[in-house]
């Protein structure tokens, strides 16, 4: 009879620690877990279970029993490596069958064996434990001869690049079972664990495309006084295998030419896990999109010289059209909001990827904590879908604190309702105070406007900021539509109406242009994105083009046209280094440069500009305060190198120019910067600290500037 389900899960989690689990440790924990669930016979011999000799248990023996009452106390003598309490803690439930019964020679022998094995797992490879039963037959006394301690020292891996060496060493430095209880910061030396790590290194090399890789432990040296065991591991990677044209097998009822064209994108690429899985996913996705929702793709492989050929055996199954779509579990949410989007697919070929895409879209609103999909195929060629929904906490009140080299301290309050009025709309109200001033705004967002793929937002805001040279107050209303056409291309349409006032804080009034004015504008932003990660990209191309037209009223109307192009390209080098090239340019055409408001001009300088200048301080100035310009360009090159873990170092060079009017860009002063920085690769994006040095400093300009920011440099 199989053990209880929770015991199986426990053992499985241990097995996943490495590719080849430590068998003795696994059986010891199997022994522990089974006793914890009262699923073994009290008094079962510890040695048999620890050595993996498992007996078939009867249903009666598997019945839960009461927790055994402690009748025996175990005392440990001669142990200095850890306390008696720590040692007993490591033994845990493994000794329940001993302490729950009266002392006996067999139980004392079990206790000695378990302690000896545990000590050897903790870096005492020569530990010996014998036993005796105490006076009045109440205690089991374990006498320990520790022997020298042995912990893992330096691990040298030869034959591969330094970056990969660091990654491969982690296989040898994995914590052993119970290690955290000791907290000594050392990894016990266990020969079987080293053998497992050597095997895992070979598997890792194969996953990188080195299918003939060999790994061997060539030298073991002991530093007796320190108790350290140093290892030298040699890796022979062999040739890097490349992907050959795949082979497709099975009774396939569709044209395979389009699929072969898609798979040709992987030909000649390294035969690593990433590319192999991508090839299989492409094959499966091809059939799913054709309506073969229950397609199974079995993958085999064969080597042809230094190439790896993937063999896909395909079983397509039947095609179905979507029939009824049911939703259960809704309380606050209006079901018609979900139905309006889902009903568009009724009668179309069932594609589980498309259904999953809708599920992720609903989950991303934040209104649901879970959403499960059930399907029921019908005999008439249709399939019914049921969404089982659990709504989450949609409302939240929050605060945030932050700091920036330009904004100074930042404090904010916010209220969020992710399911406003049960319509899956997001209501957001926030206020923020920083070194620049105050910002208050409220918005309502519909991520599936009218059940479509359009994301719509209405926004009102109030703003009071003080810049070097002038202050501004602004109130406005805006609307935008975001249309993500595919993974690489998207568009944003927007319109705004703004009422603004500016006042001098050092600049002459004539430099401000209109000081009380309104702006009406419409614009479109187009995005082309081939980056590997939007938050912290290391590879790929990105471009963004903004086109805007508007009119300024504060006297005579001033029409204007604004264009801004941004682009970046990242190219990886070696294992974790990459080069970033960025370029930006902008033009703002208008017919009245004298009255055109200062706040509508371009300002340069800062962490995403020429980094030798503080924010907004590069370019034309009056009385030491920047006045902005109407045309600019920026170019930057940056090399990023991984130091250790999430820590990166970058060196960069920036160049840029800002002209007061569009006709003067070709003669504007070019500013040059070079610098050094460090940044952390975090899930929220890079946290950057950089210093830019002014390479061609002019009178009144800074020698350099330090920047601290969160976020990618475009």
Automatic annotation (TrEMBL):
<dbReference type="InterPro" id="IPR000184">
    <property type="entry name" value="Bac_surfAg_D15"/>
</dbReference>
<protein>
    <submittedName>
        <fullName>BamA/TamA family outer membrane protein</fullName>
    </submittedName>
</protein>
<feature type="domain" description="Bacterial surface antigen (D15)">
    <location>
        <begin position="419"/>
        <end position="714"/>
    </location>
</feature>
<dbReference type="InterPro" id="IPR039910">
    <property type="entry name" value="D15-like"/>
</dbReference>
<keyword id="KW-0812">Transmembrane</keyword>
<dbReference type="InterPro" id="IPR010827">
    <property type="entry name" value="BamA/TamA_POTRA"/>
</dbReference>
<keyword id="KW-1134">Transmembrane beta strand</keyword>
<keyword id="KW-0472">Membrane</keyword>
<dbReference type="GO" id="GO:0019867">
    <property type="term" value="C:outer membrane"/>
</dbReference>
<feature type="domain" description="POTRA">
    <location>
        <begin position="320"/>
        <end position="392"/>
    </location>
</feature>
<dbReference type="Pfam" id="PF01103">
    <property type="entry name" value="Omp85"/>
</dbReference>
<dbReference type="Pfam" id="PF07244">
    <property type="entry name" value="POTRA"/>
</dbReference>
């Amino acid at each position: 009879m199989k053990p209880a389900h929770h015991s199986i899960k426990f053992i499985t989690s241990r097995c996943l620690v490495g590719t080849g689990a430590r068998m003795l440790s696994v059986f010891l924990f199997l022994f522990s877990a089974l006793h914890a669930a009262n699923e073994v016979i009290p008094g079962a011999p510890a040695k048999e279970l620890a050595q993996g000799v498992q007996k078939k248990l009867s249903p009666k023996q598997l019945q839960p029993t009461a927790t055994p009452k402690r009748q025996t106390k175990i005392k440990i003598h001669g142990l200095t490596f850890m306390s008696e309490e720590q040692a007993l803690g490591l033994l845990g439930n493994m000794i329940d069958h001993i302490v729950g019964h009266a002392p006996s020679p067999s139980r004392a022998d079990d206790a000695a064996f378990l302690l000896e094995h545990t000590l050897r797992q903790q870096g005492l490879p020569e530990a010996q434990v014998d036993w005796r039963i105490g006076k009045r037959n109440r205690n089991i006394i374990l006498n320990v001869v520790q022997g020298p301690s042995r912990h893992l020292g330096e691990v040298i891996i030869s034959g591969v690049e330094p970056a990969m060496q660091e990654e491969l060493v982690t296989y040898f430095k994995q914590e052993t079972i119970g290690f955290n209880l000791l907290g000594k910061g050392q990894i016990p030396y266990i020969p079987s664990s080293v053998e497992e790590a050597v095997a895992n290194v070979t598997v890792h090399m194969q996953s990188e495309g080195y299918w003939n890789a060999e790994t061997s432990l060539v030298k073991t040296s002991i530093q007796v006084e320190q108790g350290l065991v140093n290892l030298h591991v040699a890796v022979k990677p062999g040739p890097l295998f490349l992907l050959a044209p795949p082979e497709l097998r099975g009774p396939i009822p569709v044209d395979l030419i389009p699929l072969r064209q898609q798979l040709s994108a992987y030909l000649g690429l390294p035969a690593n896990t990433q590319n192999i899985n991508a090839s299989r996913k492409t094959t499966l996705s091809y059939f799913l999109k054709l309506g073969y929702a229950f397609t199974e793709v079995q993958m085999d492989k064969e080597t042809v010289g230094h190439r790896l050929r993937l063999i896909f055996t395909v079983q397509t199954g039947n095609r179905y059209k979507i029939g009824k779509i049911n939703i259960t579990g809704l309380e606050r949410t209006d079901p018609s909001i979900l139905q309006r989007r889902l009903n568009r697919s009724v009668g179309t070929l069932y594609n589980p990827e498309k259904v999953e895409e809708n599920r992720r879209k609903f989950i991303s609103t934040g209104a649901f904590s879970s959403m499960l999909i059930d399907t029921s195929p019908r005999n008439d060629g249709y399939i019914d879908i049921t969404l089982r929904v659990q709504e989450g906490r949609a409302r939240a009140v929050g605060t945030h604190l932050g700091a920036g080299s330009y904004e100074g301290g930042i404090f904010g309050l916010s209220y969020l309702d992710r399911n406003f009025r049960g319509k899956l709309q997001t209501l957001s109200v926030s206020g923020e105070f920083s070194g620049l001033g105050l910002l208050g705004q409220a918005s309502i967002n519909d991520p599936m406007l009218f059940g479509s793929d359009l994301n719509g937002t209405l926004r009102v805001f109030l703003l009071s900021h003080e810049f070097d040279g002038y202050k501004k107050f602004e109130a406005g209303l805006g609307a935008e539509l975001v249309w993500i056409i595919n993974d690489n291309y998207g568009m944003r349409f927007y319109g705004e109406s703004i009422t603004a006032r500016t006042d001098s804080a050092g600049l002459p009034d004539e430099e401000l242009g209109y000081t009380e004015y309104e702006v009406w504008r419409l614009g479109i932003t187009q995005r082309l994105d081939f980056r590997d990660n939007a938050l912290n990209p290391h590879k790929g191309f990105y471009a963004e083009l903004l086109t805007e037209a508007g009119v300024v009223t504060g006297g005579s109307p001033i029409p204007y046209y604004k264009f801004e192009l941004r682009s970046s390209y990242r190219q990886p080098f070696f294992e974790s280094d990459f080069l970033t090239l960025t370029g930006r340019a902008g033009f703002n055409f208008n017919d009245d440069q004298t009255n055109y408001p200062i706040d509508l001009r371009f300002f340069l300088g800062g962490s995403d500009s020429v980094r030798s200048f503080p924010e907004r301080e590069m370019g034309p100035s009056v009385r030491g305060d920047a006045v902005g310009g109407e045309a600019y360009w920026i170019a930057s090159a940056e090399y990023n190198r991984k130091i250790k873990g999430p820590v990166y170092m970058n060196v960069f060079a920036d160049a840029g120019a800002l002209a007061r009017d569009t006709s003067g860009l070709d003669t504007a002063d070019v500013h040059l910067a070079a610098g050094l920085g460090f940044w952390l690769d975090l899930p929220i994006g890079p946290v950057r600290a950089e210093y830019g040095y002014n390479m061609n400093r002019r009178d009144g300009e800074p020698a350099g500037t330090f920047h601290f920011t969160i976020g990618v440099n475009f």
